[in-house]
């Protein structure tokens, strides 16, 4: 299938979808020319069947929350043609959590995780829990900054420098699997979370604006690591504010609102 052929078939999908007024729009974005295999390579969340211990929060969730308004969320980054979404998901959660507690928003290194986390597969995928576990066990809970360890979007050798380490993680709280009320409570009371979603549908690939509601979207077959920075309501629809790592030209300035 030629690039032009792929783009033209996506153009038809975009026109058909947007004329149906389904509550969200799609567009011929920078991913519109990718083959299915190329697109799939961006989705690097590797599910682990092991059950993680999670305790349901008893706190009360706010009606809505958007951590982007509180100076604790960095600008959207771009993972490039590398399945490192898991590293971006991990880092955005760490950046925001550290900023909430210490009133200092730093830009940390995803490449540090891509190159160093032995239990993950760099550009071929990984798991946010495994990344945090590695950092706690092998990097004394610390990270290098983006400036000291810049992103290359390819697998490299581990160049972590303890002398330049910053930030700190001592542990993390899991959300009860599939429990959206628990996620809302923890995002409301603790801050942005590292979450996994099903991003396999073409409508996610080409998402442009609105509240994403895709019948083909699975709650169980998760393939993409992202961030959840809040939630809200528009009309009668409740939605999550999800931070992607495909640059600001994708979606709503790099974000997607997903139906709650």
Supply the helix-strand structural class: alpha+beta
Number of beta strands: 7
Strand content: 15-25%
In the residues, how many domains can be counted?
1
The quaternary state of the protein chains shown equals single chain
CATH level-four homologous superfamily name: Cysteine proteinases
What characterizes the major β-sheet?
A: 7 strands, mixed
| Top CATH class | Alpha Beta
Which overall shape is indicated by the principal axes computed on the Cα atoms? globular
What's the CATH architecture? Alpha-Beta Complex
H/E topology pattern? HEHEHHHHEHEEEE
The helical percent reads 25-40%
Instruction: Report the mean per-residue pLDDT as an integer.
Output: 97
The termini sit apart by 36 Å
> Low-confidence stretches at least 5 residues in length (pLDDT < 50)?
none
Notes on the structure:
- Belongs to the peptidase C1 family.
- Keywords: Disulfide bond.
- This protein has helices spanning 3-19, 36-40, 85-102, 110-116, 128-138, 180-189, 202-205, and strands spanning 24-26, 65-66, 193-197, 207-212, 224-234, 237-243, 255-259.
- The relative contact order is 0.20.
- Strands 1, 2, 3, 4, 5, 6 and 7 form a seven-stranded mixed β-sheet that branches.
- The model has no long low-confidence stretch (mean pLDDT 97).
- The protein is α+β, with helices and mostly antiparallel strands and 260 residues long.
- The chain is 28% helix and 15% strand.
- Helix 3 (85-102) packs across helix 4.
